[in-house]
Amino acid sequence: MTRRIGVLAVFAIVLAAGSVLLAQDNPFVGTWKLNVASSKYDPGPAPQSQTRTWDAAGMVMVNGLNAAGKPTSYGYTVNGDGMEHPTVGSVPNTADKISSKMTDANTYIASFTKAGKHVETATFKVSNDGKTMTIMAKGATAAGAFNNTLVWDKQ
Q1: Side-chain half-sphere of 9: how many Cα atoms within 13 Å?
Q2: What pTM value is reported for the model?
């Protein structure tokens, strides 16, 4: 019995170490803070602040304060599998689904839809040094067209 417990403990440690190594190989994984001063919102206004967490499975959660100072929270999955995944919370472009593909180790291209209609294309790119992520988001909703460049600093 003791041997079985020991084997199970070693197995659990190997699995945990493997997931940590996978996360280290993915430059997107971690916590990112929006650099509002370096970002461009067309049209504005920009949010007051945002923090983005990206886990090893590609789940992205964004929390912050909008331009009026009200809390916002939303999320989605960016894992490069090309399949549609539901969004969570109030995504700014009111999307309800996202699909993504990885074009290289530091870049994802994502398509957001609302009720089956395309509303946004976003390119997520991490710098070679892994310290900055830039998101270029372009699309149109009922509120009008937008073309935003968001700059994020790794925390």
Answers
A1: 6
A2: 0.83
pLDDT at 90: 79
Radius of gyration of the chain (CA): 18
Task: Tell me the CATH number at 148.
Answer: 2.40.128.20
Kindly report the average pLDDT of the chain as a whole number: 88
Q: How many domains does the chain have?
A: 1
State the number of CA atoms in the 13 A half-sphere of 24 facing the CB: 6
Structure tokens at 133: 């992520």
Burial of residue 94 (CB within 10 Å: 0-12, 13-18, 19+) is: middle
Phi, psi of 2 (to 5 degrees): -60, -40
Q: How far apart are CA 46 and CA 151, in angstroms?
A: 12
List beta partners, residue 64. Answer: 50, 72
Which residue segment(s) compose the domain that 121 sits in?
2-154
What gap in Å lies between CA 98 and CA 84, rounded to an integer? 5
CA distance 45 to 94: 16
Tokens 């999320």 found at: 75
Which tens digits make up the pLDDT trace of 84-93? Answer: 999 999 787 6
